[in-house]
Amino acid sequence: MAYVIYTSGSTGKPKGAMNSHRAVCNRLLWMQDSFGLTPDECVLQKTPFSFDVSVWEFFWPLMTGARLVLARPGGHRDSHYLAELIAAQQISTLHFVPSMLRVFLQEPRLEERCGSVTRVICSGEALTFDIQQRFFARFSAAHLYNMYGPTEAAIDVTAWECYRDTADPVVPIGRPIANTKIYILDEHMHPAPLEVPGELYIGGVAVGCGYHNRPRLTAERFLPDPFTREAGARIYRTGDLACWRTDGHIEYLGRTDFQVKVHGFRIEPGEIEATVQQHPTVRAAAVVARPDSTGDTRLVAYVVPNTDAVDSLPTTDEPVQEWGSIYDLYYRQDAPTADPLFNTAGWISSYTGQQMPEAEIRTWLHDTLVPVQAQQPRRVYEIGCGTGMLLFALAGGCSEYWASDPAGGAIAYVRQHLAQAQLAPEQVRLLVRPADDFSDIPQGYFDTLIINSVVHYFPTADYLLHVLRQAFKALAPGGMVLVGDVRNMHLLRAFHTSVQLFQAAPDLPIHQLRHRVQTQLLNEEQLTIDPAFFAALHHTDPQIARVEIRLKRSPYPTEHTRFRYNALLYKAADPATGPAVDTGVHWRHWQEDELTIDGLRAWLTQEQPRAAGVTDIFNARVLTDAIAVNLLLRPPHTPTTTAELRRQISGTNQRGIDPDRLRDMGESLGYTVQVGWSPNDAACFDVLFTRPDSTPPPLPIADPQRANPQRLWQSYANNPKQSLLTRTLPTLLRAYLATKLPEYMVPAAFVIIDALPLSPNGKLDRRALPEPDAALLERDRPYLAPRTPVEVMIARIWGDVLGVERVGIDDGFFALGGHSLRATQIVARLREAFAVDIPLRLMFEDVTVARLAEAIETLQWMACRPSEAVADPATSEEGEI
Ligand code: AMP
Q1: Exposed, middle or buried: residue 9 (CB in 10 Å: 0-12, 13-18, 19+)?
Q2: Rounded to the nearest whole angstrom, what is the distance from the C-alpha of residue 316 to the centroid of ligand 1?
Q3: Least enclosed by CB within 10 Å: which of 54, 285, 360, 643?
Q4: Ligand 1 pocket, 150 CB below 6 A?
Q5: Quick one: pLDDT at residue 337?
Q6: For the segment 166-223, what is each residue's pLDDT rounded down to a tens digit?
Q7: Cβ(148) to ligand 1 under 6 A?
Q8: How many Å apart are CA 325 and CA 134, to the nearest integer?
Q9: Is the CB of 126 under 6 A from ligand 1?
């Protein structure tokens, strides 16, 4: 044996390929016979000796008396250095992996600098026609060769000299070298006819001696040679697809398995997959090679996180802290509305990234206040008052209004505006504290407790439960808790589908859209709650007299009115008796009974039932989103582009009803109307019409009798902590793999997905793996370090907030995994760092570190020259920002 060289192994263990002196000598002698290297020539040695190309680089010049020049370690990757070295050392012969030759050919003035080169040998991966042509365009006299061979044989086993003037778009791998046989066989080990693809087998002297200490694997790949009588002769099964051409040369066609070549490095994705899967945070992984926008091959790892590992992540108060930091930002921001008592800062649409219109927010506020005002509140405790939108509307009519918020800034803002709201300081008691801190909060005291639009910042359903239990203690008998603006867990996918569909270009392939939705789901940082949570709470707590789940009342189809709801929890005035409920509801099913609005009106008018309910009415506010979800989830009926999907959705004949139409109709007929989600289908709602003089029973969704006492509390909510895992996983895995694998095997991009796509026979369907966003692949392209102090600071802040190790100046905010919450945090930090008022919207405008730095520098410059009339680059239409 001459040497063992290790190469990637699909089972996760590299395998050592052994080669004999005899085979290597044969290969070297053939080379000298064919090319005739002379002592006045010079060969460059630049391939690391763990790759077999280095064997001829070392021994050929030594054997022939030619000069041997050793490149510095790592020099093979630096084309500028190589060009300089060739010029300085007058190198005549050198090797390139084709992808590196492509890079090298971009060097300026190669013709002058590298005129000494007479012979370039390519091997290791397919040599393309375009690289060949570029080579001949730069090197007018040099020869170019395409050689082929695996580590399991002595270096190369076929060779081809490229033609200068050829229109043949394929560069063949040539013919076998001396004493070497090539067989191209079908699956029955019969020679494939000319031009018919088959698997390439190597026979003759060149075949290696098998894998070191791997007899089973050796037996699988090194088979007895069926075409010779020579005892012990073996053929090596390469896994390469090839065919014989009619001109007697061989054409390389690809692989029969998943082995890939990235920059000439031979990689079994299985080896990387096995290593990734050893990490405790990973449930499953797949690795594929994909071309980036320049045609360069990159490794992409698809990772399904092990959500069980989420709980082992360090627990932080992150969601609660973030909640605090967001409001700390908002209070500093001038209200986008003229009225500081109606501060709408932070009301950013998830669809457009723009401020939501004031009218929508005013309607939302009115709808939120209706049940509170019905309570005629005198003593209120509001948890999470933010910048006081509810407080300023309600406190005037109260004898005491207590309000807390974890953000000191928010409380300071409210305090600052009390006088303007004509509120006496003793009337309003302000506390800086998290939601679950009830110390010094009197028990049995308040008639109304408000927890509005903040539950999504809570970390878990258990936390919400804990807060609500305490809230009930603070409530006087007959009091009410409003849990407002709760995000519906069952509509989380519909919400993200809706936003992604809105933002997608018409030609976006459908699998990309599906992937974007999945990414958003995995990145969801906010708590969403199953409305049935409140019925379950009722079931366990005898203090609760009644629960009502309310869909929002508003003519505006906003994300708040479509995907959020209010829960009202009433404390029994007398726990012993509880309210007498009218139970005789006449229920009908919208779809099965084929009801219409007119039919319903006729029923209510003619029969005048005391209590009438209708279940499972398609909700016009979310129906198209639910249809989109179904179309996206259910292949093979899915369309192929976003535009087609949109057409298909608008073509469906299912029509929904806006809940407010039934509400208006019922009220016009003198009924009290309750509208809540259907427990059967989140795309449907139920409605209950009762006479004002009767005590209405709960809607099915709020009915404690229907609650499942076995169900765990955490199952009523998503797990926002999972997003922490999703965000940190790429950095975590990159660092981990760097300790386990050679650098070239560490994937360029990590795509977090919720499940690996499977083919009908249950195997991984690699072709169905979504394409990563181009930006993700670009990330591993040349890193441009921050150049100015402003860029350095921005990169540092982005890195901290986004959990990214290294941020370059061309990195885009969204490409690094940014989203609106992160934008808010970043802007807060930037404002602190640069002491200028940076508009949040800058973060939504295709921003990179470099562009943001420019914008900040301009803002700083303007801030120093208040008197000069300059266009605001952040608002100017022609601005670059
Ligand atoms: P290695 O063991 O690293 O030399 O990789 C061997 C594999 O690289 C072969 O099985 C082929 O898949 C690929 N390969 C090597 N040379 C060429 C070539 N000239 N053209 C196409 N593929 C090649």
Answers
A1: middle
A2: 49
A3: 643
A4: yes
A5: 66
A6: 999 999 999 999 999 999 999 999 999 999 999 999 999 999 999 999 999 999 999 9
A7: yes
A8: 56
A9: yes
Q: 448 vs 395, 419, 462, 472, 565, CA distance in Å?
A: 12, 23, 22, 10, 18
**What integer pLDDT is reported at residue 511 of this predicted model?**
80
Distance CA 592, CA 684 (A): 13
DSSP E strands: which ranges in 506-632?
Answer: 544-551, 564-571, 586-589, 611-618
Tens-place pLDDT, residues 42-72: 999 999 999 999 999 999 999 999 999 999 9
Mean pLDDT computed over 596-614: 94
* Ligand 1 nearest atom to the CA of residue 259, by list position: 12
**Which residue puts its alpha carbon closest to atom 5 of ligand 1?**
150
Atom of ligand 1 nearest to the CA of 53: 4
**How far is Cα 227 from Cα 221, in angstroms, rounded to an integer?**
16
| Contact criterion met (CB below 8 Å) for 300 and 748 | yes
- What spacing in Å lies between the alpha carbon of 125 and ligand 1's midpoint? 5
125 lines ligand 1 (CB under 6 A): yes
Q: What is the predicted pLDDT for the residue at 881?
A: 27
Mean pLDDT calculated for residue range 811-832: 77
Is 70 exceeded by the pLDDT of residue 570?
Answer: yes
* Whole-number pLDDT of residue 138: 95
- Pocket lining: 173 vs ligand 1, CB cutoff 6 Å: yes
pTM for this model (two decimals): 0.71
Separation of 126 CA from ligand 1 center, angstroms? 7
Residue 319's SS3 state is helix
What are the phi and psi torsion angles at 558 (to 5°)? -100, 170
pLDDT tens across 684-739, in order? 999 999 998 887 889 999 999 999 988 999 899 998 888 878 877 887 898 899 89
CB 211 within 8 A of CB 13: no
Is the C-beta atom of 266 inside 6 A of ligand 1?
yes
What would the mean pLDDT of 767-781 be, rounded to a whole number? 66
Of 10, 240, 249, 255, the one to substitute when testing ligand 1's pocket (max ligand atoms within 8 A of C-beta) is 240
Alpha carbon of 123 to ligand 1 centroid (Å): 7
Q: Cis ω on the peptide bond leading into residue 191 (within 30° of 0)?
A: no
Tell whether the model's pLDDT for residue 581 goes beyond 70. no
Q: How far out from the chain centre does Cα 396 lie? A: 46
Place of tokens 């045609």: 295
| DSSP E strands, 424-490 | 428-432, 446-452, 475-487
569 in Cβ contact with 468 (< 8 Å): yes
CA of 243 to the centre of ligand 1 (A): 15
Whether the CB-CB separation of 699 and 531 falls below 8 Å is answered with no
Rounded distance from Cα 127 to ligand 1 centre (Å):
10
Contacts of 77 (CB under 8 A, 6+ apart): 100
Distance from the alpha carbon of residue 791 to the mean position of ligand 1, in angstroms: 43
- pLDDT tens digits, one per residue of 321-345: 555 655 565 555 555 668 889 998 8
Contact indicator for 641, 614 with CB cutoff of 8 Å: no
Q: What is the pLDDT of residue 635?
A: 65
